[in-house]
Amino acid sequence: xxxxxxxxxxxxxxxxxxxxxGRRFDxxxxxxxxxxxxxxxxxxxxxxxxxxxxxxDLAEKVGLTASGxxxxxxPLEKIGMVKSEAAERDARVRYVKLAKGGQRILxxxxxxxxxxxxxxxxxxxxxxxxxxxxxxxxxxSIN
Length: 143
Description:
CATH class: Mainly Alpha
Order of helices and strands: HHEHHEEHH
Strand content: 5-15%
Number of domains: 1
CATH topology: Arc Repressor Mutant, subunit A
Radius of gyration: 17 Å
Shape: globular
Structural class: mainly alpha
Oligomer: single chain
Number of helices: 6
């Protein structure tokens, strides 16, 4: 059996956990017709100044490419969760803004996600806070 570097082992385990948790959260969030990625988008928009971000900034915050986030935004815009907005000073710049429908779904979906997270992560709050600090150091975007 080949031994692997502890850092690589950590990375591979982190990747696997992310995939498993993403599927579990998607199963819970489908009650609100959103995915985990959709929830992340709505959350970042809600926490942004004026509840809006440039697409490229939103893509960076959720860890997607600009085209990837654009593909996710199209259906959200179609059903009224987000809307596109022009910048006041530069017509070339477009913002994504959280719409009223998105605010409502975010509130409901967050409650479901919090319940799911608390169920999955029943445990030591101090260890959870330490793990969260590590994830933020590694590039996580939710403080």
